[in-house]
Amino acid sequence: MSFTVEHVQWLEDTGERVVSVCGKSIPIFKLSHDASNEKIMSAWARYFRNHYCSDEQIEYIKNPSKTNSEYLLTEKFPHEQNPPGPSIRAGDFAEILVADYLEFVRFYKVPRTRYERKIIANESSKGSDVIAFRKEPGVISATDELLIFEVKAKASENSKNNVLQTAIDDSVKDEMRIAESLNAMKQRLLDKYDLDGVQLVDRFQREPDHPFKRIYGAAAVVTETSFNSVIISGSTTAKHPKAQELELIVIRSVQLMPLVHALYKRAADEA
Q1: Residue 93 near residue 143, CB atoms below 8 Å
Q2: Residue 112 has pLDDT above 80, yes or no
Q3: What is the dihedral of CA 188, 175, 143, 100, to 10 degrees?
Q4: Which of 149, 156, 208, 236 is 20 to 30 A (C-alpha) from 81?
Q5: Quick one: which of 194, 193, 256 has its CA closest to 224?
Q6: How many Cβ atoms from other residues are within 10 Å of residue 74's Cβ?
Q7: How far is 160 from 167, CA to CA, in rounded Å?
Q8: pLDDT for the residue 1
Q9: CA-CA-CA-CA torsion for 130, 131, 135, 139, nearest 10 degrees?
């Protein structure tokens, strides 16, 4: 997937760090988007849309009785109003945003295969939320990295739940589901004839003979009014079996749900 990703410049490290009760430093990022910037919003919407269905394939895949926009809104995108559509939208948005952070800020390889073969639009995709890789081309090394992130979103206003703790707790499941998630990713990459991607995943399915670094992550994407550093500081990784290899991050943003809905609407309207 090769697109303009200028929206990533809106993701800023605030420099703020919250320390959890278990002593982990939690960086706080802020998404300072400008919804009036037509150029960046349009490019972001196109990039976002192609996670679900490539522009090159939509004419062949869609129901022929529907326009591109109708097809995306009724058969590909989570519903704007019908539950659990809004929460699925927020969750997908948060996962894609964290994937963008890992790829374009941290420079990991992050194959995008999670949403394009969903059977039911109004359900979340199964498996690990975000899978990222780091390795030198043509070399297998014990320093290669597999990073598995669990992502939770709270896009409603004035909700002080500790969704970071929920992400930490759910991250425990990634130890069990990573093999299935890598297998699903590999199959989807093969469907797209992305042989470089297939080889990348293949390297991280060879852990017994070729060890690598396995790192875990938990992320919370929340509205500005729902962010509370005291509550975040109450997070603990004590029960996580890989606590030493677990990194944490919080991303906050104003008017998060309006942004999510606007992005889906533009993605459909401009298809």
Answers
A1: no
A2: yes
A3: 50
A4: 149
A5: 256
A6: 14
A7: 15
A8: 62
A9: -160
